[in-house]
Amino acid sequence: MADSDRLNRVRSGTAVPSHVAVIMDGNGRWASERGFPRHLGHKEGMKSVREVIEGAVEAGIDTLTLFAFSTDNWKRPAQEVSALMGLLRLYVRKECAELRNRGVEVHALGDLDSLDEQTLSAVQEMVERTRGGDVLRLNVMISYGGREELLRATQALADRVRAGELLPEQIDAEELEAALFTRGLSDPDLLIRTSGEYRISNFMLWQLAYTELHISPVYWPDFDREALFEAILDFQRRERRFGCVSVEVNEPQ
Ligand code: IPE
Ligand code: IPE
Ligand code: MG
């Protein structure tokens, strides 16, 4: 695809975010507004996943994290849950070879034990077949919840204390981060949420502490690489301070 004007501006701007996370929201409303059943919105959303992965590679993002299914999404009607699991399997069948060819290494993060056998093995196959891809690391968050992740980490640390491997006072940010699903990853620089909702919905509660937020009004099935570039351009206009003062601030003596 020819370089777009937006992509050129992204590349010539300040640093491209290294880690971008996305709450892919609005599939159901996209479908309902067209008089379609909700699952068609989820299916259409798969095209946006492809778009955003390709856009991430073009922009030079290192890590892309996509929120695909939350722990609370299990509470949706059984029919919708089963459609979503079916789409996950379809995604692996349709996209795995392409992901591998593009050098995308897929990781699946979340409570994978709660997946049915078929879906779990499809997900594992995608992880295994893409291992070693060095262009983009893609984290697909499945049956993931930020609070559940923190609870698991807390239990893992408590187990180590009980086993005498760790003293309570040795529990620091580094130890906790090593017990999260995202161990070894930098925090997201940019979080995109589609469909105009201004909330985090239990996503990466620890990791998003200083992440820049970009809320797009567009429903996920309408989100494309140009919308990703727009979000990056927005990010490039931000000044990140991490609780410090601006570098430009000159205090009068
Ligand atoms: C996001 O779209 C996909 C998942 C949460 C699995 P939704 O299904 O939440 O769509 P809306 O928010 O109801 O429109
Ligand atoms: C968050 O969206 C979960 C995913 C995108 C997978 P939801 O649609 O489930 O969140 P709420 O209900 O709007 O908070
Ligand atoms: Mg939603």
Mean of residue pLDDT values: 96
Strand content: 5-15%
Shape: globular
Q: How far apart, in Å, are the first and last alpha carbons?
A: 54 Å
The topology string of helices and strands comes to: HEHHEHEHEHHEEH
User: How can the largest sheet be summarized?
Assistant: 6 strands, parallel
Integer-rounded radius of gyration = 19 Å
Q: In total, how many beta strands? A: 6
Give me the CATH fold name.
Answer: Undecaprenyl pyrophosphate synthetase
- CATH architecture title: 3-Layer(aba) Sandwich
Total of domains: 1
Summarize the structure.
The chain is α/β, with parallel strands linked by helices and 253 residues long.
Describe the structure.
It is built from eight helices and six strands. It is α/β, with parallel strands linked by helices. The protein has one domain (16-145, 187-236): Undecaprenyl pyrophosphate synthetase, CATH 3.40.1180. A six-stranded parallel β-sheet has the order 3-4-2-1-5-6, with helices on both faces. The longest helix has 24 residues, at 78-101. The mean pLDDT is 96. The structure holds 3-methylbut-3-enyl trihydrogen diphosphate (IPE) (2 copies) and magnesium ion.
